[in-house]
Design goal:
577 residues, alpha+beta, Penicillin-binding protein 2a (Domain 2), 19 helices
């Protein structure tokens, strides 16, 4: 059988056609197999690789707890702000990009280039933290690769320097550094969460994939402070320090019914919202960190010990002639010869001789025990960082001169809070409540230091100090009867007592019949002709009490409402009054 020429020519073409079909079929099968492999066999691997290149876990910041006063007024809050950061690994920026970014951030181009280019091995570096929203908007409008923003929180203190020494402040990472911020740092610190996001080639978030772990905000704290009284005390203290050109000053106000600290202020202070020019010495909460010899305010504690012993009443008489007496080589002196004085007059005239004779007759152990029960020589228990407990000497080693000088507040040291605490006890019936900077609810248990009858007599002695003829007439308050004790003590320097430097002190309670508050005012080194406690500290007490009574809604004394102001008597000038 013979084949035609056309058959011979068509045979190779057919094989080529079949070969092409085989090649295409094999390629299709290979592609199909590869697709099956990618979508079935290697799916999880490929998904993980894709996610590794586009899905990231980002933190969810948790804000710090709020600090407020007893009425809910904010003292420290955390406000959301923005932070600009870079991913140097993908931040490929041109010279023009660096110039624009530096201008938007308000930094130098040289610093910015070194910051990003010098950290190419890192995936995260801060460029500028916690800045204003409009500044962040300028940066993000540039749409530069590897440049991102995140939300953080910045601490803000609405009361500023008024409550700075109590509230304290945090660092840029919201870790407590001073005050309540430090002592309750763990309580107020939040626990950050996390979320998964999908990012594009430039590192920008294009899709939120959900929360991995919710952020837990920090717990809030409500302080015992009354911000109204805090402002009031701060204003009057600052005015007094400036008027008398003093080095520093402190005021503490306590609620005598439960030991709550209603106000605690110091001068000089600082603004926690702007610490660029902060002086370290201004950080101290002097009301609890600085100790001093309290001087004559301790005479009331000595009198309390005398009254409790039943050896004395307020009418008991002591001979202070001729205005001094000697103990060994030392002399105890009054400003002048007061002659015969009652125990109440020993307080109102501020007689060092009279207080010394009482203490020597009682014995040092008895006086020491009263001082200790009033809270001296021990911590107040408020848990505030840097508190100084002062010094209460060991009575077993005392000489008579040491017993005598301690009776009027020398040879020992206290802080302003301890002094206010002692007057709280002396004025409220002898009840020692635990002090607190944290607002508490419900009744507070108290330790009974002495009988209420002793407290009543002590308040009578306090009132005599403020009445005409006493050393503290400038502490008088229109329409309210008050009481307390003045003090003027020599300031201690590097080489002992400074002859011309003093601390002016006044401690007292108001109103005197049914005390609501106890207060201590301490002003360090007033300059000029006025430096006695009755001239410098007592008027501050008067002004603060007058406004505080109104704020607290205390009813005026009916006997004084119709009388003219009786707060203009000239203060006497006894030696240490």
């Amino acid at each position: 059988m013979t084949r035609s020429v056309s058959d011979v020519l068509q045979a190779p073409a057919r094989w080529r056609y079949i070969l092409v079909l085989l090649v295409l079929g094999s390629a299709s099968l290979a592609l199909l197999g590869r697709a099956v492999q990618l979508h079935v066999v290697d799916q999880s691997f490929l998904l993980s690789q894709g996610d590794a290149r586009s899905i990231r876990t980002e933190p969810l910041d948790a804000h710090r707890g709020l600090i407020s006063d007893r009425h809910g007024e904010p003292l420290a809050i955390s406000a959301p702000v923005a932070t600009v950061y870079a991913d140097p690994f993908v931040a490929e920026l041109s010279d023009a990009d660096y110039r624009q970014l530096a201008a938007a951030l308000g930094v130098s181009k040289k610093w910015l280039f070194k910051r990003i280019d010098g950290n190419k091995g890192k995936r995260f570096i801060y460029l500028k933290r916690k800045i204003a929203p409009h500044d962040v908007a300028k940066v993000m409008a540039l749409d530069l690769p590897g440049i991102h923003r995140r939300t953080e929180y910045k601490r803000y203190y609405p009361a500023g320097e008024v409550a700075a020494h109590v509230v304290g402040f945090t660092d840029i990472d919201e870790r407590g550094q001073e005050g309540v911020e430090l002592s309750y740092n763990e309580w107020m610190t939040g626990h950050p969460g996390a979320k998964r996001v999908m990012k594009n080639r430039k590192g920008h978030v294009i899709k939120d994939l959900g929360t991995v772990r919710s952020a837990e905000p920090g717990k809030s704290i409500e302080l015992s402070l009354d911000l109204r009284m805090q402002y009031l005390a701060y204003r009057e203290l600052k005015a007094a320090v400036e008027t008398h050109r003093a080095i520093s000053g402190s005021i503490v106000i306590l609620d005598v019914s439960n030991g709550d600290i209603l106000a605690m202020v110091n001068q000089p202070s600082y603004n926690p919202n702007n610490r660029q020019k902060l002086e370290v010495s201004h950080l101290r909460n002097r009301a609890i960190t600085d100790v001093f010899e309290p001087g004559s305010p301790m005479k009331l504690a000595t009198v309390a010990a005398a009254l409790e012993s039943k050896k004395y009443t307020l009418n008991s008489t002591l001979d202070t002639s001729p205005g001094y007496f000697r103990l060994g080589r030392k002399s105890i002196r009054d400003a002048r010869n007061y002659g015969a004085l009652s125990v109440q007059e020993v307080v109102s005239k501020s007689s060092n001789v009279g207080a010394s004779k009482i203490a020597l007759k009682l014995s040092g152990d008895v006086v020491w025990d009263m001082f200790y029960r009033l809270g001296f020589g021990q911590g107040t228990g408020i848990g505030f960082p840097g508190e100084s407990i002062g010094k209460l000497p060991d009575p077993s080693r005392w000489k008579p001169i040491e017993v005598a000088t301690m009776s009027y507040g020398y040879g020992m040291s206290v802080n302003a809070l301890q002094l206010a605490q002692s007057y709280m006890i002396l004025g409220n019936g002898g009840n020692k409540y635990p002090l607190s900077l944290i607002k508490r609810s419900g009744p507070i248990a108290a330790e009974s230091v002495f009988e209420s009858s002793v407290s009543e007599s002590v308040r009578d002695a306090m009132a005599a100090v403020v009445a005409k003829g006493g050393t503290g007439t400038r502490a008088q308050v229109p329409m309210y009867r008050v009481g307390g004790k003045t003090g003027t003590v020599h300031r201690i320097g590097q080489h002992g007592y400074e002859k011309s430097e003093y601390k002016a002190i006044f401690a007292g309670v108001a109103p005197i019949d049914k005390p609501v508050i106890a207060m201590a005012v301490v002003i360090d080194s007033p300059q000029g002709q006025e430096y006695y406690g009755g001239e410098v500290a007592a008027p501050v007490f008067s002004r603060v009490v007058a406004e505080s009574m109104r704020l607290l809604g205390v009813t005026p004394d009916a006997e004084l409402v119709s009388r003219p102001s009786y707060a203009a008597h000239k203060t006497l000038r006894p030696g240490e009054g």
